[in-house]
Amino acid sequence: MNNVDIMGGWLPYSVYALAFLLVVIALLGRGKRRWLFITIAAALLGAGIGIALIPFVQSPIGLDTVLDPIALTWMCGGFALVAAMVVALVRGKAKRRVLAAFAIPLVLLSAALGVNAQFGQYPTLGSLVDAPISGKMPESVIASQHRLAPTAGTTNAAAGADAKSMPTQGLVSRVQIPATVSKFPARDAYVYLPPAALGSHPERMPVMIMLSGQPGAPENVVQAGSLREIMDAWAAKDHGRAPIVVVPDQLGDPASNPMCVDSKLGNSATYLTVDVPKWIESNLGVLRGPENWAIGGFSQGGTCAIQLGSAHPEIFSAILDVSGQVEPANGSQAHTIKVGFDGSTTAYEAALPLNLLKKNAPYRDTVAVFGSGSLDGVYGPRVNTVSEAARNAGMDVTRVVSPNTAHSWQTVQWVMRNSLEPILTHLHVGPEQSASEQSTPEQP
C-alpha cells in the first residue's frame, strides 16, 4: 500500500467521485427558496475564507511555499463545498444530514489530494508517513565504493560499460553524513548511485548535491522529485553513467530555515561545504575537483545552490537553481538579518547571491541552469533576475520555463527531465558524451 499513487490513479479519483456524488445528493430536492440563498451565501462565505487564508498558506514566517492557481482553486472550492454541506446538515431531513456528514470529510480529503497533486509533495501513501524510500546502502556496495573513493583519477569507460555486472537501475540508499566540523543537526541523507557505479566493476563518477525546499526533507527530492527514475533515464543514454547524487539535509527540521549560512540557527553552510564533501570523498567513488561537482536545489534549496555555488567555485562548477529566491529569507528582511546574521546588515548583504556573483566574477568554467514554472508569478521573476546576474558574471547560463506548472515538484521534475543536459555535458556524462564516444574511432 505504501506505493499507491495519490497524485493520480484510482485512489484520488475514487475519493473525488464519491465526494461529488454525496454533495450532489445532499443538495438535491425541493427546498424553500431561502435555503437556496442560504446555501449559496454559505458557499461564497466558505470560498471567501479560503481566499483569506491564501497569504497564510503561501507565506508563513520562515516557510517557502507558493501554490499555483489550480491548487488554490482546490483549496477555495473545498471551503465553499464544506460550508454548503454545513447548511445541508441543518435542513431538517435525517437522510440529508447523514449524507452531508459523510460528504464533509471527503470534500476536505479531495481538496487536500487536489492541492497535493498540483504541488507534488507526497506522491504515494507511504510518503505521507515518511516511509523509508530504501534501506541503508548494502555492505557490498559500500565496499566497492570504498575501493574507489580514496583515489582521485579519471573515469574508466571500459569498466563502466561492463554490461554483464551492471544493474539496469540505479540504487537509492539512506545514509548518515556526520556533522563533524559544523555540528549541524542534520537528518539522514540519501545517495543515488547510477548503474555504472554499481556492479563488480564500478566506475568513478561526478557528483551532484541536491537540496529540498522548505518546509521539506531530503526524502522529498527522492520521492516528490522522482530522483531515481529521472537519473536512471539519463544514465540509460550513456551506458549507465550519470552523476552520483547526494541529498543532504540543509534544514535540520522541516519548519527551520537556517538559510545555508552559519548562524545561531545552525552552521548549515559549513555542513554543506565541509562535512558533506569530506564524507562524499571518503565514502563514495566520485571524481574530485570542481570540474566534476555540481550543486542544485528547489525553492529554498535553489537559493542555497546559487549561494553556495557562486561563493565556492573551488568546490562547484555547475549549478541547478529551480525556483530559487534572490536572497536568503527567513520571514521579513529585518527578521532574516536578526536571526540569520546576528543583526548585521553587512553580513546579510555579503551572503546575497547577486553580491556573491559580482564578487567572484568572472566565472570562467561554470555552467548554471535556472528553471521555474510558467504559472509561478512570484518566483519566476526572481529567477530571471538571478539568472541574468549569473550570465553577466560569466557563467554559461541556461534559463528554462516548465509549461503549466508553478512553484511545485512538478516543475522540478520537468526541469530535471528536460533541461539537465548542460550540466551533464559539463560533467562529461549524458547523451552528448555518449554520442561523442560512439563517433570517436577506436585507436589501434
TrEMBL record:
<feature type="transmembrane region" description="Helical">
    <location>
        <begin position="69"/>
        <end position="90"/>
    </location>
</feature>
<dbReference type="InterPro" id="IPR029058">
    <property type="entry name" value="AB_hydrolase_fold"/>
</dbReference>
<dbReference type="Pfam" id="PF00756">
    <property type="entry name" value="Esterase"/>
</dbReference>
<feature type="transmembrane region" description="Helical">
    <location>
        <begin position="97"/>
        <end position="115"/>
    </location>
</feature>
<dbReference type="GO" id="GO:0016747">
    <property type="term" value="F:acyltransferase activity, transferring groups other than amino-acyl groups"/>
</dbReference>
<protein>
    <recommendedName>
        <fullName>S-formylglutathione hydrolase FrmB</fullName>
    </recommendedName>
</protein>
<dbReference type="InterPro" id="IPR000801">
    <property type="entry name" value="Esterase-like"/>
</dbReference>
<keyword id="KW-1133">Transmembrane helix</keyword>
<keyword id="KW-0812">Transmembrane</keyword>
<feature type="transmembrane region" description="Helical">
    <location>
        <begin position="35"/>
        <end position="57"/>
    </location>
</feature>
<feature type="transmembrane region" description="Helical">
    <location>
        <begin position="6"/>
        <end position="28"/>
    </location>
</feature>
<keyword id="KW-0472">Membrane</keyword>
<dbReference type="InterPro" id="IPR050583">
    <property type="entry name" value="Mycobacterial_A85_antigen"/>
</dbReference>
